[in-house]
Sequence to fold (727 residues):
Amino acid sequence: MLRIRDLHASIDGKEILTGLDLDLPAGEVHAVMGPNGAGKSTLSNVLAGRDGYEVRGTATLDGTDLLALEAEDRATAGLFLAFQYPMELPGVGNAYFLRTSLNAIRRAHGLDEVSATDFLSVAREHLTALDMDPAFLSRSVNEGFSGGEKKRNEILQMSMLQPRLAILDETDSGLDIDALRIVARGIERLRGPDRSMLVITHYPRLLELVRPDRIHVLDGGRIVRSGGPELANELEADGYVGVTDRIPA
Amino acid sequence: MTDIVQELVERTYEFGFHSDIDTELAPRGLNEDVVRLISAKKDEPEWLLEWRLAAYRHWTTLEPPAWQNVHHPPIDFQDMHYWAAPKPKGPAPASLDEVDPEIRATFDKLGISLAEQERLSGVAVDAIIDSVSVATTFKATLAEAGVIFCSFSEAVREHPELVRRYLGSVVPPRDNFYAALNSAVFSDGSFCFVPAGVRCPMELSTYFRMNAAETGQFERTLIVAEEGATVSYLEGCTAPMRDENQLHAAVVEIVALDDSDVKYSTVQNWYPGDENGVGGIFNFVTKRGRCGHRAKISWTQVETGSAITWKYPSVILQGDDSVGEFYSVAVTTGRQQADTGTKMIHIGKNSRSTIVSKGISAGRAQQTYRGLVKVLRSATGARNHTQCDSLLIGSECGAHTFPYIEVKNDSAQVEHEASTSKISDDQLFYCRQRGLGEEDATSMIVNGFCREVFDELPMEYAVEAHALMRLSLEGAVG
Fold:
C-alpha cells in the first residue's frame, strides 16, 4: 500500500525529514507519534503534495509514485489528508465543495458524477453517524466553525470520499473528550480491508479510542522506533525522551 | 501563484470576431450638423432635436473628468464616428426569421440564439447591434400586461409623451461630460414602461453589442415603473476584438414612482484589450435611478470586461422609506482599469441603502471602489450599510477604496466595512488536496467571495455569472 523509502524534505534550506522509511500495508491503521518539531506535519504535507518543499526519496501508493504527482492527482489517486488546521472558504457552500470534490475524484476514475439528490442522501447518513447537524451542509466551508466542528467536517469529508489512504494530521488536537469520541468513532467506521490510515498525533489519548496496528515514533525527521500498540503505554509512562533514549547507538 | 498571473495575462478574448455587416457611417467628428443628421436619420420630432442640440452646446463648454483613478491617452472626440447603423439588405424584417443571417450568426456566436431564447427561456430580448434595435421579442405578451418594452427610437415614435416626460429627469443632459455627450448623440437603446400596479410578467433582457470599428456607442436606456409596478431588467454586453479603443458612453435612467420596485442587473464582458492593454472598450457610463415613497431600486452588476470602466450606478432616495441597493462584482485582469462604485443620496425620511462591492484584481490590473453616501438634512432616520471587499490574485495588481460619506442629519446611521485579502496558498492547497485542479480551486474561491452578489442575480443569470467568472479567470493555472 504506502511505501516510503529514504524520504528527505527541506524547506528554505532546512532539512526536516532526514531519511524516513515507513511501510503501511492495506487495511492497517498506523500511528505516527513524536515530539514538537519532529517533522510530523512535514510528513503529511510532503505526502499530500504541498508546494514549497524540496523532496527526494520515494513514496508510492499501490506502486504509484506519489512524488511525481500534483496534489490534486494524489487526491484522485486515493490520498486524503485530514488537515490539522482546515481552511475556511468564505461563500463556498460545504455541500457544493464536497460534491465537487467527490465528482472530481469519480471523474478521474471514469465514473459518473453523483446527482445532488444521491449526494444528499449519502451525506445525511454520514452526518448522523458523526452527530452533525444537517445544517452543516449549507454553511460555508469551515467558516465560523468551532475547532471541533472543523475536525468533524474533515471526518465527514473523509467518510464521503472513501480514500485508499487517509492521513490524519493531529486530528485530535484541540478537541474536548466528547468531540474526540465522535471523531474516533468516525475513524473507526472507516476501517476496512481496502483502506490504510496514518494517524499522526502528539498525544496518546486518541490511540485509546482508535487502536493502531502499529506505532512509529518520529524524531529528528525519521522513524526512530516502531512497535505494537503497547508502545503507546510506554510513551505515556516515559515520554518521548525516555523512548528515544533507548535507541541503540 | 506567479504562474496564475502569467496565464491570466496570456488569455485571449473569447468573443473576438467581427461580422461583415454593411455599415452606414456618419462623417468623422462631432458638430451641430452631425447631431442634426442623427436626429434626421431617426425622424425625430423637433423637441428632441432641440434637446440634443442644447446638450451638445453645453458639452462643448465641458472638459472630460480627470479625477478618476484611471490612466489613458486623451480621447480625440473629433476623430470618431457618431452614427453607425446596419444597412438593411432589403425591406425591414417582419419577424425574427427575416433578420439578416449575418446578424443572427453574430448572436449565435455569442450564445444568444434569439429563436432559442424566444422559445425556451421565456426571456424577452431586445437585441441591439451597434445602434439599431434589430428584433424585439415577446412584445405581444408584454403588451397584454400593458408593459411597453421597445427600442428607444420606437418609443420616441410611438410614445413621445412618455419619453418627453421622463427623458433627462434623472440624469439631466448637463449632468456630466459623458452624459452631455450621450444626450447629444445617443443613437438607440431600450425603453421600458410598466404601468401602475403591474408586475412585469417576465424578466426583460437586452444584449448590447458593438460592431463597427472606431464607432463610439451611445446607448440611452429609460425605465419607468409607475406606482406599485415591479420589473426586473437585465443588460448583457459583449464586443468583438478591436485594435482601436472604442468609447462607450451610455446613460441609464430609472424612474421608480411610489411603491414600485425595479431591479436592474448588468453582466458586462466587453473586450478588455490585449495583454499590453491595447484596444478594448472605454466604458464611461452614467446610471442613476430615482425612488419615490417606499420605492426600491436595486442595481446588481457583474463586470468582467472593458479596458477602462468608469461607472457609478446610483440611487436618489427621494421618497420616504425608499430603498436603494448596489451589489457589485468587478473583475479586472491583465491591464484592465476600473474606477467604479455607487452613490446613494438620501433625501427621504427613513430611506435605506445597502452597498456590497466585491472587487477582484489579477495580473497588473488596477481597481478602485469609489462610493458616496450622502444623507441630506431632510433624511431623518436614514440608514446605510456599506461592505467593500477586495480580493487580490498575484502581487502586481492593486485595489483602492475611496469611500465618501457626507451626513447632514444626526439621526442617520452609516456603516462602512472594508477588507482586502488574497487567495492564500493554504486555501488552494486545501482545495487541491480534495481533488480540484488549481484553476477549479481558484474559480471556486472567487465565486465564493462573490456569493452575496450572485445571490442577488436572477436565477438563470447567476449561472451565467459563474461561467463568466470562470471564463475571465481562465488560464489561471500554471
Remarks:
- The longest helix of chain A spans residues 94-108.
